[in-house]
Design brief:
The protein is mainly alpha-helical. It has one domain (19-237). 79% of the residues lie in helices and 3% in strands. It has a two-stranded antiparallel ribbon. A hairpin with a 2-residue loop joins strand 1 and strand 2 (10-13). The radius of gyration is 27 Å and the shape is elongated. Residues 244-256 have low confidence and may be disordered. One of its GO terms (cellular component) is endomembrane system. Keywords: Membrane, Transmembrane, Transmembrane helix. It comes from Mollisia scopiformis (Conifer needle endophyte fungus). The chain crosses the membrane at residues 26-45, 52-75, 152-176, 183-201, 213-235.
């Protein structure tokens, strides 16, 4: 539920997103999925084998999705462990060094322009409630927010699924078309459109202006194009140094 306030007889309702972390994971996963597999399949297409592009692309797609999910899970678990360790340390300091911790409260609140006589009642209240005292120190001194216990699995799922869906889009032409050159150009066209749309929507959601949306579209497109061009160039260069592999056959002398 969004906070509601009445000011001068007018109802004011604040709109804030409560799913920022999920949206962030989806953005990261989809952006990586849209660029990395696209760059790989574009690079592999220079070898001229449609089957190689599909197999290599699917292998990267599945391994990348698993890797993204695992990375998100481990990062969330580590974040939770870090919070618990810091919280335990804060409890110990409140018990053993209350004077120093009280002074920390004064330092924190003075930043907001509050005088000591205004801060003192807060300090006295925290002294009677150690749990709230520690929560305050965690939030304002260490700037840490208690992670949701289910965050690890949600993060893993969001990153993995969004990566897989993003990476599947550039590969669709290779499944539907036999001519690898035509498939490459169709893939490029689809991916360019998706990069522009994704970049625009991403910035519109996070910033909220059309100008930022347009800039986000340009940024995302530049990153995707550079990644694909680099991958294509590297594979093409390696292929030119080893033409035997491109022909898909090795002679007996090549194997010795």
């Amino acid at each position: 539920m969004q906070p509601r306030f009445v000011h001068n007889g007018v109802l004011h309702e604040e709109h804030h997103s409560s799913n920022d972390e999920i949206v962030r994971d989806i953005i990261i996963g989809f952006a990586d999925g849209l660029t990395v597999p696209f760059a790989l399949t574009a690079g592999l297409s220079s070898l001229g084998s449609n089957k190689l592009v599909i197999i290599g692309g699917l292998a990267e797609l599945f391994s990348g999705a698993i890797s993204m999910g695992l990375g998100g899970y481990l990062a969330s678990v580590t974040e939770g462990d870090h919070y618990d360790a810091e919280e335990k340390r804060e409890y110990e300091e409140v018990e053993t060094l209350p004077g120093a911790e009280k002074e920390e409260i004064y330092k924190i609140m003075r930043v907001y322009g509050l005088e000591d006589e205004v801060i003192k009642p807060m300090v006295d209240a925290f002294e009677l409630n150690k749990e709230m005292w520690v929560k305050f120190m965690m939030r304002f001194e260490l700037e840490l927010k208690k992670p949701d216990p289910s965050r690890a699995w949600i993060s893993a799922g969001s990153l993995s699924v969004s990566y897989f869906l993003g990476g599947l889009i550039p590969m669709i032409p290779y499944f539907a078309m036999h001519d690898i050159t035509h498939a490459l150009f169709v893939s490029i066209g689809i991916t360019v459109v998706m990069l522009l749309v994704f970049g625009f929507v991403k910035n519109m959601y996070t910033v909220g202006t059309k100008k930022s949306g347009a800039w986000g579209a340009i940024q995302t497109l530049i990153v995707g194009v550079l990644a694909a061009a680099t991958s294509y160039g590297i594979v093409r260069a390696l292929d030119s140094r080893n033409p035997v592999m491109t022909q898909g056959k090795l002679t007996a002398s090549d194997m010795n």
